[in-house]
């Protein structure tokens, strides 16, 4: 398994803090958002490598970060190697979108893929997510119950059967059919990689990462894992200040 971190956004809502610095590397206590995420993923034995997809504006900063993280590893450390991919964009208006960035990171169909947004903090371990994937042996997506209709209208929403198999997924529905919201965490089985590589030929949206999951629901089996804790989406200055310390 490889982990792929989508970190090519420009975080304009956090300007000026992120005008010349990538949001995933913002400081959280004595660490960063991305370091906290990868420290957890490093504990999943199946993960052999991290791939971070960023933009050209911030690629050199991620290169320096990856080098420093590697140099700080000692013999007891479980840190996995990191590869940085530059998607070539330099402005928010010219961004490729999360799905196109993901496609840049897929080398072949030999690996399962743990795909994550690089600007989220979790108070639980993703190891449970990986264990659920092994149990189901299908692609899996994370979900949580969201009581607010207003928030459901701004995210992906799924309907599931009694075994948590995904029946339908909608992006930002005006009339949500359930309270199961989908955060940007997915594990795609290697058997589904050919479908992912061909997704653009079937009208898959390119911007939101949930667009790919929505397409896959129509052509293969996906199960949903209810997350066992809380997630912090660092999207605004207020949400960053809430977790900074």
Cα(first) to Cα(last) distance is 32 Å
What amount of the residues lies in strands? 15-25%
Question: What is the count of helical runs?
Answer: 8
Task: Please trace the helix and strand order, writing H or E for each element.
Answer: EEEHEHEHEEHEHEEEEHHEEH
Shape: globular
Query: Would you tell me the overall average pLDDT?
Result: 92
Q: What is the tally of beta strands?
A: 14
> How large, in whole angstroms, is the Cα Rg?
17 Å
| Contiguous runs where pLDDT drops below 50 for at least 5 residues | none
Query: What's the story with the biggest beta sheet?
Result: 10 strands, mixed
Structural class: alpha/beta
Helix content: 25-40%
How would you portray this structure in words?
This protein is α/β, with parallel strands linked by helices and 245 residues long. Helices cover 26% and strands 25% of the residues. It has helices at 33-41, 59-71, 98-105, 127-136, 149-152, 193-197, 210-217, 237-243; strands at 2-6, 27-28, 31-32, 49-54, 82-86, 113-117, 120-122, 139-145, 156-160, 166-171, 180-182, 185-188, 222-226, 231-233.
What would a concise description of this structure say?
The chain has helices at residues 33-41, 59-71, 98-105, 127-136, 149-152, 193-197, 210-217, 237-243, and strands spanning 2-6, 27-28, 31-32, 49-54, 82-86, 113-117, 120-122, 139-145, 156-160, 166-171, 180-182, 185-188, 222-226, 231-233. With 245 residues, the chain is α/β, with parallel strands linked by helices.
């Amino acid at each position: 398994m490889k982990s792929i971190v989508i970190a090519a956004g420009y975080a304009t809502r956090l300007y000026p803090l992120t005008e010349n610095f990538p949001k995933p590397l913002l400081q959280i206590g004595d660490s960063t958002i991305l370091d906290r995420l990868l420290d957890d993923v490093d504990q999943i034995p199946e993960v052999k490598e991290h791939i971070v997809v960023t933009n050209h504006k911030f690629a050199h900063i991620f290169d320096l970060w990856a080098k420093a993280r590697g140099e700080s590893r000692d013999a007891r450390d479980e840190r996995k190697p990191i590869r940085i991919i530059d998607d070539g964009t330099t402005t928010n208006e010219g961004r490729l979108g999360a799905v196109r960035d993901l496609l840049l990171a897929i080398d072949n169909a030999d690996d399962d893929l743990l795909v994550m947004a690089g600007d989220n903090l979790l108070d639980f371990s993703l190891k449970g997510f990986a264990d659920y994937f092994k149990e189901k042996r299908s692609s899996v997506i994370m979900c949580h119950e969201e009581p607010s209709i207003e928030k459901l209208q701004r995210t992906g929403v799924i309907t599931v059967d009694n075994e948590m198999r995904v029946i339908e997924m909608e992006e930002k529905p005006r009339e949500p059919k359930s309270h199961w919201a989908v955060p940007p965490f997915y594990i795609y089985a290697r058997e589904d990689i050919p479908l992912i590589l061909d997704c653009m030929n079937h009208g898959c949206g390119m911007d939101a990462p949930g667009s790919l999951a929505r397409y896959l629901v129509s052509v293969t089996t996906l199960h949903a894992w209810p997350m066992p804790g809380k997630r912090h989406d660092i999207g605004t200055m207020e949400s960053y200040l809430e977790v900074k310390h």
